[in-house]
Amino acid sequence: MNNLLLVSHGNFCTELKASAEMIMGEQENIYTVPLLAEEGEKEFLEKFEKITESVENFIVFSDLLGGTPCNILSKKIMNGASFELYAGMNLPMVISFVNANLLGSQSDFVAEAKESTVKVNELLAADAFDDEDE
């Protein structure tokens, strides 16, 4: 089973995990590492490394490309660390991770993120247009 680490500015990662659990049930293999306002790189890295010392086979979702949590972990990768790091995390990506783990399959998290971003008004308008045609 793969593990997932969510990292973010503030408690976004913790709340994202809670939202995923609301839909998918408790997730024991999802960990969170928030960068709190009063913390710096050192404190964030200590929390990250404490978790990853005991967790194998993990990937990381970060909230923002170019944001501090993503930049800190990018430096780790550039210095030899080996893990997959994705930026732009959202709830569909986390749900996709959970489903892939349940099914023992792979998921394209980038594609999931792109496919789940839609303008609902356009979908509704398309359905309304179809109804008028029938």
From TrEMBL:
Gene Ontology biological-process annotations: phosphoenolpyruvate-dependent sugar phosphotransferase system
The PTS EIIA type-4 domain, residue ranges: 1-118
Record key words, sorted: Cytoplasm, Kinase, Phosphotransferase system, Sugar transport, Transferase, Transport
The organism's place on the tree of life at top rank: Bacteria
PROSITE patterns documented for this protein: PTS_EIIA_TYPE_4
GO molecular function, a single term: kinase activity
Main subcellular localisation: cytoplasm
Subcellular location: Cytoplasm
GO CC entries: cytoplasm; membrane
Pfam families for the chain: EIIA-man
Coiled-coil intervals, chain numbering: none
UniProt keyword Transferase, yes or no: yes
InterPro entries in the cross-refs: Bacterial_PTS_sugar_comp (IPR051471), PTS_EIIA_man-typ (IPR004701), PTS_EIIA_man-typ_sf (IPR036662), PTS_IIA_man (IPR033887)
Name the record gives this protein: PTS system IIA component
